Amino acid sequence: MGVYTFVCRNSGGEWTAKQHSGEIEASAATPYELQRRLVAAASAADSASGVQSSFSMVTPSSAVFQVVVGAVGGGAMISGGAAAGGGATSGGAAAEAPKEEKKEEEKEESDDDMGFSLFD
């Protein structure tokens, strides 16, 4: 798994990005195109499958872009700071789906009869 962090800047209508601690650089006319180029460059540098990315504007002319290549489970989301276990489990140890709970619909109060009238 590889994590690539880029500092992005807009100068003169062109977006440029340089890897925070590495050699990858790219430039493009739009932030979207820059992200596509950076994901392609990071994917080429790391042969693992599954890519996640995050683009965060810091100011109108600067941003931070992070690409995670080879995320757990080939792109599965990691939540709560805990990584998922190995992908190969044997036997019938499949996780059961939680049972759906029947929810009672709350009866909304009607505004029709408030016990007074505005025109009394």
From TrEMBL:
Superkingdom of this protein's organism: Eukaryota
| Name listed for the protein in its UniProt record | 60S acidic ribosomal protein P3
Pfam families, alphabetized: Ribosomal_60s
**Which residues are the signal sequence here?**
none
Keywords of the record, alphabetical order, are: Ribonucleoprotein, Ribosomal protein
Record bears the keyword Transport:
no
Please name the InterPro entries in this protein's record.
Ribosomal_P1/P2, RPP3
Segments for region (Disordered): 83-120
Molecular function in Gene Ontology: structural constituent of ribosome
Q: Which family does it belong to?
A: Belongs to the eukaryotic ribosomal protein P1/P2 family.
Supply the source organism for this entry: Dichanthelium oligosanthes
Its annotated function is as follows: Plays an important role in the elongation step of protein synthesis.
Q: Name one GO cellular component term.
A: ribosome
Q: What biological process terms from GO does the record include?
A: translational elongation
